[in-house]
Design brief:
heterodimer, A: about 675 residues, mainly beta, Methylamine Dehydrogenase, Chain H, Thrombin, subunit H, 4-stranded antiparallel beta sheet, about 5% helix, B: about 220 residues, mainly alpha, 6 helices, elongated, RNA binding (chain A), WD40/YVTN_repeat-like_dom_sf (chain A), UTP4 small subunit processome component (chain A)
Chain lengths: ~675, ~220
């Protein structure tokens, strides 16, 4: 297979942002997750939980709540604004100031006609949801104290609002407070500390469920205003509640990192005397759980430890199958590392800045597993901070390292970098006006052109040169899809450009003729990465369900190798991986090699070798060496997997045939999270 | 005379004299009164002045009450003075504490920044952003403020190592402040950084507060 000199890079200080809130859309099976830096991510639960879309954050947005209304997504935050998002162009469509101070919660009624927001000034404000916008209707009666949480009754006639020390039930029509439920403070030393009702749920039978900062989950009768049952579930706060659609199950997230389930079941067989009973406890987080979503089959949780956890409920799915596995999504499903293969440079993308590093050098040779002495240490050449409040959406570095570009939702910036005795970076000031609302950026391999994907899956082509940046052409496709492009790659010979959008369409453009060449047959799983082979000009695509395809651009059809692979099927160990392939690269010395990686492994697929059996077990080098020769040949198949490096942010092959492996160990991320609660464990 | 044989009884609700001066005053009044009555008897042949028991009792009570009032007023004044002094000390302590916090953060941040920072003045805070900071401070104090019983990531991970299937040593047990929130300073947004520098942080241990020099307060921004 080959020996590689590996640049093991651990200086990418990638730090994910905490999950503040989430909302599940059961119609479209999409989960929207809002992070502390204001970014919103959309996960497709129908497609192996692929992170389809990322809307970059903004300084000061401080999103506290998310809400789906049909296909529309709204958020509200501590900046006092309600934002509606344009999911086709991956940016906020508009913002409306609620004029109530910071907004803590947002919820829509069941008909989708009104939005209620809970504000700092103690008012619940009602907005009418119109075609292209929302419009303020009225305030409900104002109360002293901030409105932290609220929930509509399914009939849209009442609203339950959680505040400090109480829950108020409003009549949505008149705005009057009809009932006040007084919540007990914590026992013991915290008697003086006010109790904050962090979350409320309102069921059809007028049962109200509340979670508060004293660690209680309380069940109330909303009609009589009486307390039915109290569960003290934690010493710390119950931060969030989520009710299932059929109202038979409620989950509560705590500061301890646990998620507790309550179910409306009867203790006897005849099902007459049902009551709310605490059933399961899930311990999948190390830090506070501040966001929950209860789907039909799973419990989805997220919080301060930045990981999204999907826990299928074993009474709803078949046990011991792929469907019932616990899923933890800790890293983004797209590459944040750019590599200039000719120059040996790495570009790291952060939300607020970019870093350009030069890889180090070592000397000498060694056996596999040796650590070579470092002759020259890696060096940070440039740290480029973004201008303005919007976070960086995408970035690109040309192969020669001479051009750097990044974009936010409001602007695109292009820089020329010169490497003489000192590094100099100059901004290219006049950019073509067509370059706005860009989602992906990519330089051509000869660094003469910049490709930028824009609205409606179109691609803007601009020429970059020493003197200027000139608009050349806009490439458009014919399917009418309005979904954004999330993958963009150009061939090495400069003739082809491939784009992939979230409608699972892959389009190929001929750059010599500047027009659409063909479209790859649509496969129902979204591509997670695409690449064009430098020698054969075949397009390799890997999808969210881990399938691999090879499409010949010249012949406009799948290759023989791809058809054989589909006929045989991929081995189950490959299909069971739960992180997507985020990058493909090729070996200049051996055109049969395809190098791809996900978070936990990188793999070299050798197209000249036979495919493994479906149920093949992958042995490591040590065991393979101990096998007799005949058996070893039988084990020699196309998939060579290496798990020595984790957690992988990028694997790339430089021109000098050395491998660059960018790792970000999870421990390094965990060490920089906020403080977890202090749990007293026995014998510690 | 009737006065000599009488002991001064406590007046009103003052049970016992607490200060020497008060007791002295009381006896002083008594002696003065005695002296007055004595003095009134000094001319030999004259009959003693007709001073009724009621009158002298009233006079004695009056002067005792006066003395008690003065004593009470003095006590109040002293109390007030003591309270003001205590407040002043607390104010000074808080001021000192605050700058110590700022310096601690700056010290740890400056080693990470290595010359990539600029010092700028704080922008005029609008009402909206002030309200946002108040709201963010509310969350911070409810979740991480005093009494919330938090620990460090270092301790949590070390406990996991200790209780896990493969028991191993504590994580970074030599570097005590590894895994505390302070190391993530540069990853915060500008708004929360400003907030952190202006409020006391619960993770600051008591020994950090003792910084001897008084330095000028500066605010560092990463942009």
């Amino acid at each position: 297979m080959g020996e590689f000199k590996v640049h093991r890079v651990r200086f990418f200080d990638y730090m994910p942002s905490a999950i503040r809130t989430m909302a599940f859309n059961s119609q479209t099976e999409r989960l929207a997750v809002a992070r502390a830096d204001g970014a919103v991510e959309i996960f497709n639960f129908n497609d192996n939980f692929f992170q389809e879309k990322v809307i970059p954050g903004q300084d000061g947005r401080a999103t506290e709540a998310l809400c789906w209304v049909g296909h529309r997504l709204f958020s509200a935050g501590l900046n006092g604004e309600i934002t509606e998002y344009d999911l086709e162009n991956l940016r906020p469509q508009y913002t409306v100031d609620a004029y109530g101070g910071p907004i803590w919660t947002i919820s829509s009624n069941s008909q989708g006609t009104q939005l209620a927001v809970g504000c700092e000034d103690g008012t619940v404000k009602i907005f009418a949801i119109l075609e292209e916008r929302i419009q303020f209707q009225r305030n409900l009666n104002r109360h002293k104290g901030r409105i932290i949480s609220l929930c509509w009754h399914p009939s849209s006639a009442q609203i339950a609002a959680g505040m400090t020390d109480m829950i108020t039930i409003f009549d949505a029509e008149t705005g009057h407070a009809t009932r006040r439920l007084l919540v007990d403070r914590a026992m013991g030393a915290s008697k003086n500390k006010e109790v904050v009702v962090w979350s409320v749920g309102y069921l059809s039978d007028h049962t109200i469920i509340s979670g508060d900062s004293a660690g209680k989950v309380q069940i109330w009768n909303g009609l009589t205003g009486t307390l039915v049952r109290t569960y003290l579930v934690t010493k710390w706060d119950v931060l969030v509640l989520s009710v299932s659609k059929d109202e038979s199950s409620v989950i509560a997230g705590t500061s301890e990192g646990t998620v507790i389930q309550f179910q409306f079941i009867s203790s006897t067989v005849d099902q007459h005397d049902k009551e709310w009973v605490r059933t399961r406890t899930f311990r999948n987080h190390s830090h506070d759980v501040s966001a929950l979503a209860h789907t039909d089959t799973a419990v989805v949780s997220g919080g301060m430890d930045t990981q999204l956890v999907v826990r299928p409920l074993l009474d709803k799915v078949e046990k011991n199958t792929q469907e019932s596995a616990l899923r933890k999504i800790a890293f983004p499903h797209r590459s944040l590392v750019g590599c200039a293969k000719k120059a040996g440079l790495l570009l790291f993308q952060f939300p607020d800045h970019l870093e350009l590093w030069k890889l180090g050098e070592s000397e000498g040779h060694g056996k596999p597993g040796d650590r070579l002495p470092v002759k020259r240490k890696p060096e940070k050449l440039i740290e480029l901070k973004r201008k303005g409040e919007d976070h960086i959406c995408c970035s690109a570095l040309s192969a020669c390292g001479g051009w750097l570009a990044y974009s936010t939702v409001s602007s695109v910036r292009l820089y020329r970098i010169q490497y003489n005795n000192t590094i100099s970076i100059n901004k290219v000031s006049k950019l073509p006006k067509e370059l706005r609302s860009v989602h992906q950026l990519c330089f051509s391999s000869d660094s003469s052109k910049l490709f930028a994907s824009s609205c409606q899956s179109s691609v803007i082509v601009v020429a970059v040169s020493q003197q200027e940046c000139r608009y050349l052409h806009t490439l458009k496709h014919k399917t009418g899809s309005r979904q954004p492009v999330h993958l963009l790659c150009a061939s090495d010979d400069g003739k082809w450009l491939a784009t992939a959008n979230t409608d699972c369409e892959i389009h190929i453009y001929n750059l010599h003729k500047m027009k659409l060449h063909c479209m790859v047959p649509v496969y129902n799983s979204c591509p997670t990465t695409i690449a064009i082979h430098p020698v054969t000009n075949n397009l390799i695509s890997v999808h969210a369900d881990q399938q691999i395809f090879e499409f010949s651009l010249v012949q406009k059809e799948y290759t023989q190798w791809s058809r054989r692979l589909q006929t045989q099927g991929l081995l189950s160990l490959w299909l069971e991986r739960d992180t997507p392939i985020t990058h493909i690269t090729f070996n200049p010395k051996n055109p049969d090699h395809i190098i791809l990686h996900d978070t936990y492994m990188f793999c070299i697929i050798d197209q000249s070798l036979p495919f493994p059996e479906l149920n093949a077990v992958l042995w490591n080098q040590m065991i393979l060496k101990s096998l007799p020769v005949s058996q070893r040949i039988g084990q020699s198949h196309a998939f060579k997997i290496c798990k020595s490096f984790q957690h992988l942010m990028c694997v790339s092959l430089l021109e000098d045939l050395s491998l660059v492996v960018v790792e970000r160990p999870l421990l390094d991320i965990m060490s920089q999270l906020p403080a977890p609660v202090r749990q007293k464990k026995f014998a510690t | 005379s009737t006065f000599k044989s009488q002991n001064p009884k406590p007046v009103g609700n003052i049970v016992a004299p607490t200060s020497i001066s008060y007791a002295q005053k009381l006896w002083g009044i008594y002696f003065v009164l005695c002296a007055q009555t004595k003095h009134s008897k000094s001319s030999d042949d004259e009959a003693p002045e007709e001073v009724t028991f009621e009158d002298s009792k009233a006079a004695a009570l009056r002067s005792m009450k006066q003395a008690l009032d003065t004593a009470r007023r003095e006590k109040q004044l002293l109390k007030e003075k003591r309270r003001k002094r205590q407040e002043l000390f607390q104010e000074q302590k808080k001021r000192r504490l605050l700058s110590a916090d700022v310096l601690e953060e700056i010290d740890s941040a400056s080693s990470n920044l290595k010359g990539k920072y600029t010092v700028t003045t704080v922008k005029e805070r609008t009402l909206a952003s002030f309200q946002q900071q108040v709201a963010e401070e509310f969350i911070r104090s409810r979740l991480y403020g005093p009494g919330t019983c938090r620990t460090t990531n270092n301790e949590m991970l070390s406990l996991q190592n200790k209780k896990g299937w493969n028991k191993s040593a504590a994580v970074q047990f030599v570097k005590k402040d590894w895994g505390t929130f302070r190391t993530s300073l540069r990853l915060m947004t500008r708004g929360s950084l400003l907030q952190l520098l202006q409020s006391s942080w619960c993770n600051v241990s008591s020994k950090d507060k003792k910084l001897k020099k008084e330095k000028k307060k500066t605010l560092f921004f990463l942009n």
